[in-house]
Design a protein that fits this description.
With about 240 residues, the protein is α+β, with helices and mostly antiparallel strands. It has five helices and 13 strands. It has helices spanning about 10-15, 25-30, 85-95, 175-180, 185-190, and strands at about 5, 20-25, 35, 40-45, 55-60, 75-80, 95-100, 105-110, 115-120, 130-140, 145-155, 165-170, 200-205. It has a five-stranded antiparallel β-sheet, with no helix packed on it.
Length: about 240
């Protein structure tokens, strides 16, 4: 599962990753770094338009056929192994794919009924591409249009397996083109993009429980927990 992450790289830094990227006016006007993003909040998302476009989506997929928006809170993640089995995800997989650039994400390690939070990122602190799906839903009561998204998860690599049983799919740069293509590539091509990312370029360390509250949205959240006291600040 991926239930909390950060986006602190500005849109122009993301443009370096995808040179042909367009940035929506909404993003240009409203970008703010976030250190503790929770489900149903707005996130920066690269949509697979004819020209890839960085826009804001609501985290938690709301399929176009949904009766109300509340379904999104239960669809923040989609398992890579079952995407082709579930209509809610199969259609977006073939039509509406996206990349969600993150600077890190959080997972909680459970031991003896105690849950310890960890922050996970790339060793070089560069933003990385999470594979996602998006859809567009219209509120029939007022005509409001909502674009929403979900993060795809897969089995963990050796680093994440020490903390959790799932991890988000991190795309290799070579997969960006296929994943963001506006057409419908063969299912096998798409599924081949969804591999478990190797652990060598990643690191994880223990943080404080500040992350447990989404209201704590400051750099303090990702600070390593210092040795001594109740935490080790262990770096994997």
């Amino acid at each position: 599962m991926c239930g909390r992450f950060i986006q602190i790289s500005n849109p122009h830094r993301i443009r370096v990753k995808i040179s042909e990227l367009e940035i929506s006016d909404e993003v240009k006007a409203a970008f703010t770094p976030h250190y503790n993003i929770a489900p149903t909040q707005n996130i920066l998302t690269v949509l697979n338009y004819q020209v890839p476009t960085l826009a804001c989506t609501r985290w938690g997929l709301v399929p176009f056929w949904a009766k109300d928006i509340s379904i999104g809170s239960r669809m923040i993640n989609a398992r890579a192994e079952t995407l082709l089995e579930k209509p809610s995800f199969r259609t977006p997989l073939r039509k509406h794919r996206c990349i969600i650039f993150a600077d890190g994400f959080y997972e909680w390690k459970t031991l003896d009924k105690s849950r310890t939070p960890y922050f996970i990122r790339m060793k070089d602190s560069e933003p990385f591409a999470l594979a996602g799906l998006w859809d567009q839903w219209t509120d029939t009561s007022d005509g409001r249009i909502v674009q929403s998204s979900t993060i795809i998860t897969t089995s963990p690599n050796d680093l994440i397996a020490q903390i959790h049983t799932r991890m988000p799919v991190i795309l290799n740069r070579e997969a960006y083109s296929a994943w963001l293509s506006p057409g419908s590539p063969d299912d096998a091509v798409l599924m081949d993009c969804l591999k478990t990312y190797p652990p060598e370029e990643m690191e994880a360390y223990e943080i404080s429980r500040l992350v447990n509250s989404p209201g704590n949205d400051t750099p303090e959240v990702i600070r390593p927990r210092a040795p001594g006291g109740n935490g080790s600040g262990k770096l994997f």
